[in-house]
């Protein structure tokens, strides 16, 4: 149905779309205790979408207390796994049933193309919740191989209250990656969405309650990182924080943990993914298109974006020509247009940040092969052209730091050894890719690359069944897969002396 909705139809719906703007605490929508709100702007045109509750310490404390009461009551934490499964499957169904509303909200809130919000963000969020629902009653505990005189049980128990802090690039999907395993394992959650994109989180809290989630199990507290985020990170009754965002803020959560109750912290802190194309790649046309998609998808606002293209000098010109050709067809458009493939930067701050990086690349001596400018300025929104730099040195700022925009750095090498060394010369280690038809090279490269995920002859492939997370300053702990459930549980040994 949504495939035939026109631009004018989406705009009409947008004009009449209601938003939930209050915090969601203990099963109810409430104003911030201070009464404060902040303007939530749409990056599509810069207009104020809504004025959202600006939560701070007092609101976080209210939410944590509600989450703790819910956990201690056992209404969710001690519910039979099959019961939690039923509720979560209903939650997933309600997300799917509200596909178009949630997709439109996501597009208006953070500027991504409506086609992607429909086909990727909301559908994958629902699928994630359903996957963990299906997993929860299939996880077994253990019996240790003890002598006959003892029985040792090894069980996994929920941690308690989990603080989930999610970014603005995939607001609903990143929330689902935390909520799925945290709720499935019986925890209560206090979710702090990014201040740039709080609207879908506030809406799905209502859907979770409609599905049967007990009051207080899921709380949503919008607000700024330095107030609401810090309060959540420092709260002495939060047992764990799961964070996705920048390395700079991730380090703050480690500090907050050490200065409070040593709460468990898991971090996914971005990357600077090396996408290595060797001269013997199976199909340079396919590799080049994948390289373009790897940096232009979601306006480059992707933690594992292929922002460093490391390519064999023998085929570099051929690959670069194809990427530039593709980039010219990926110009930003109105995100509500079903034909748009590249939308807006999330806000003016991020747009200016990306433009500053582009200026740094030009001043540093890299060659601008495509783009480099703001686009659609008369719309009032925040758009940047697909941008490609050639002749980049790996020590340049644009090759070292995460830009989080549609900016590609092309680096040339003469052999695989140099490619791997260059790929690993980074503070980050979230993902990497290698293109070669030589299976031995592929295996050796996968082992050598210091990254949480290595793609061979593809880019950004995977599904909910495989873990996602990184090495080095990309953080630690994993989202997705059964492994994600480990960070929301605590191992307990019960040793029974049989005499």
Please write out the topology.
Elements: H1 7-15, E1 23-25, E2 28-30, E3 37-41, E4 48-53, H2 57-73, H3 81-97, H4 99-110, H5 114-136, E5 142-143, E6 150-158, E7 161-165, H6 171-184, E8 188-192, H7 199-211, E9 218-220, H8 225-234, E10 240-244, H9 247-259, E11 264-268, E12 274-277, H10 284-296, E13 308-312, H11 313-328, H12 348-363, E14 367-370, E15 374-375, E16 383-384, E17 387-390, H13 397-400, E18 407-413, H14 416-424, E19 428-429, E20 431-435, H15 439-448, E21 453-456, E22 471-472, E23 475-476, E24 489-497
Parallel strand pairs: 7-8, 7-10, 8-9, 10-11, 12-13, 12-20, 13-18, 17-18, 20-21
Antiparallel strand pairs: 1-2, 3-4, 5-6, 6-24, 11-23, 14-17, 15-16, 19-22
Helix pairs in contact: 2-8, 3-5, 3-7, 4-5, 5-6, 10-11
What does this structure look like?
This protein has 499 residues and is an alpha/beta fold. It folds into two domains: 2-269 and 482-493, Aldehyde Dehydrogenase, Chain A, domain 1; 274-451, Aldehyde Dehydrogenase, Chain A, domain 2. 39% of the residues lie in helices and 21% in strands. The strands form seven sheets. Strands 14-17-18-13-12-20-21 form a seven-stranded mixed sheet, sandwiched between helices. The longest helix has 23 residues, at 114-136.
